[in-house]
Design goal:
seven-stranded antiparallel beta sheet; four-stranded antiparallel beta sheet; 16 helices; 40% helix
């Protein structure tokens, strides 16, 4: 995907190196090509002509904001390299990034970094291009969607021609028109892109010890490594060989149901209320007890007329009495139930263990209090909850609700013969803590957690990793989501198997062209020497 790298580099270079350009002649030719020479009414001062800023140019302050957003970005473990090393906030420059960093920059960071900085016309064009590459690089692609993208990318490039200078366009920008047809004929892009080969080239370069004989060094080291791998596979069948554990892979542990901790544990004692809240979160989110949840709800409706009339009261009584009712239904000595179900119904001990790091479902999680170069504390969870249109609405319906939060603690509950991992989170309050602007989901995680005091936990296996891009002086953060390294049939069938980037931008081309401005009055222009 060198096309994506070159296009991303061209966009960033155009945005950051405009304004005080030394090449005033090229700037004047660009404006003359767009037919703006007569419309701008340049004011002559001596032998210099002032040209207003182009629509794609950023002011000094906007350049600072753009670079700060990239500099302070922290992604999850293994998502990308440290992008801040290639960003200079003082000089407003971006360079020295790897190929995969440009891939991440195009599909995730560029739309977020440009949020609210450019006029609507050029910003929409960039968002459409980012959405095109994002859909193109999915692990699962739809032929019908690709066909639509082929038509949309032509319109997107037309928008670039209206707003960006002719010097921006080269052969790489033109080749994006053919990428949709290539994906339609060749299948998913990740089977054909160059990232695996570029990574292996780094391995081969490390083999070189004598710069005068690079081929010999590579051949000798490659044969030595291949011989060691052969001996390692042979010794596995004859002797016990202890291998280094792979990164972000949880190993089967008979005492822990899911995942594995990656930090030292600390024992602590739960209060009776904390134990009941944590236990209720476990049994209500375990698939084996779904039938018992329905049974208990029906039992409450049959025994209490108020539960039939008021759904809020019904769920309140269910949360209060479900654990005790379930323990009476499933006893340790009863037959016909699995041992795991029996011990879960019996309840946990008061003692538990707390961790700052955990790996589950192929993803690495850390608590928010842990200071790291990567951001592994963001979680996303979809739950079935009772919803209503307003506070005055008494009729409630069951709907799927999305929650965003940060992990504050990772706990292993002791169920006597095994441990169940749960995570405690600070959640964004639905309503005034979550909003959607310009296709981005924004959350405020600094609000009061009073509404989540009785339900702050989820199972570790239910946590999906997200990460946040925040701005200086603002409590709102943009939600982004990376791809899991684990292959899942459920994700493939649902079509959410890879990166979830900016939402598709639907633009009325005629309206956009009519409302677009071809010069910025709020940005510093340039003087062209006559």
């Amino acid at each position: 995907m060198h096309i994506e790298k070159n296009v991303t580099h061209s966009i960033v270079s155009t945005l950051l190196h405009c304004g005080k350009s030394k090449d005033g002649l090229n700037a004047r030719k660009d404006l003359q090509h767009l037919g703006l020479r007569k419309e701008l009414h340049p004011t002559t001062k001596g032998k210099r002509t002032y040209l207003p800023a182009a629509p794609w140019s950023l002011s000094k302050n906007e350049k600072k904001i753009f670079c700060k957003r990239l500099f302070h970005f922290k992604g999850p473990d293994g998502y990308c390299s440290n992008i801040s090393r290639g960003v200079s906030v003082e000089e407003c420059k971006v360079g020295g990034l790897k190929s995969h960093d440009y891939h991440v920059l195009m599909q995730q960071l560029l739309p977020v970094a440009l949020r609210g900085l450019l006029p609507k016309g050029p910003r929409t064009a960039i968002l459409r291009l980012c959405a095109f590459f994002n859909h193109l690089c999915q692990r699962v692609i739809d032929i019908e969607v690709i066909t639509v993208l082929e038509a949309e990318i032509v319109e997107t490039l037309c928008m670039f021609e209206r707003f960006f200078p002719p010097t921006f366009f080269d052969i790489m920008v033109h080749l994006t028109v053919h990428l949709g047809r290539e994906a339609r004929l060749g299948g998913p892009v990740h089977f054909r892109w160059m990232y695996p080969f570029e990574r292996y080239m780094k391995v081969l370069k490390d083999f070189v010890r004598n710069p005068a004989r690079p081929e010999g060094c590579i051949a000798e080291s490659y044969l030595a490594e291949e011989s060691m791998l052969f001996c390692n596979e042979f010794l596995k069948k004859t002797t016990n060989v202890e291998e280094k554990p792979e990164r972000n892979v949880e190993y089967v542990n008979s005492s822990i149901l899911e995942g594995r901790p990656i930090s030292a544990g600390t024992s602590f004692t739960l209060t009776e209320m904390e134990k009941n809240i944590a236990h209720l979160a476990v049994i209500q989110n375990t698939a084996a007890f779904d039938h018992y949840v329905d049974m208990h709800l029906q039992y409450l409706q049959d025994s209490n007329p108020r539960c039939r009339r008021d759904a809020t009261y019904l769920w309140s009584m269910h949360s209060k009495n479900f654990a005790a009712w379930l323990k009476g239904q499933i006893s340790i000595t009863s037959d016909g139930h699995e041992d795991i179900v029996k011990w879960l119904a019996y309840g946990p001990r008061c003692t538990a263990r707390s961790y700052t790091g955990y790996i589950v479902n192929g993803q690495r999680f850390h608590t928010y209090s842990l200071e790291r170069q990567s951001q592994n504390s963001g979680v996303y969870y979809e739950a079935t909850a009772m919803c209503r249109s307003s506070a005055k609405d008494t009729s409630q319906v069951v709907d799927l609700v999305s929650y965003y939060g940060r992990i504050t603690d990772i706990i292993l509950l002791d169920y006597h013969v095994f441990y169940v991992p749960i995570v405690r989170c600070n959640w964004a309050v639905k309503g005034n803590g979550v909003k959607v602007e310009d296709g981005f989901t924004l959350v405020n995680l600094n609000q009061s957690q009073v509404s989540f005091q009785k339900d702050p936990y989820i199972l570790a296996s239910q946590a999906k990793q997200v990460f946040y891009s925040s701005e200086d002086g603002s409590s709102w953060s943009v939600v982004m989501r990376g791809a899991s390294r684990r292959y899942s049939k459920e994700d493939v069938q649902s079509g959410n198997a890879d990166i979830i980037g900016p939402l598709p931008v639907d633009v009325d081309m005629d309206t956009e062209m009519d409302e677009a401005e071809y010069a910025r009055s709020d940005c510093e222009g340039i003087y062209v020497q006559e």
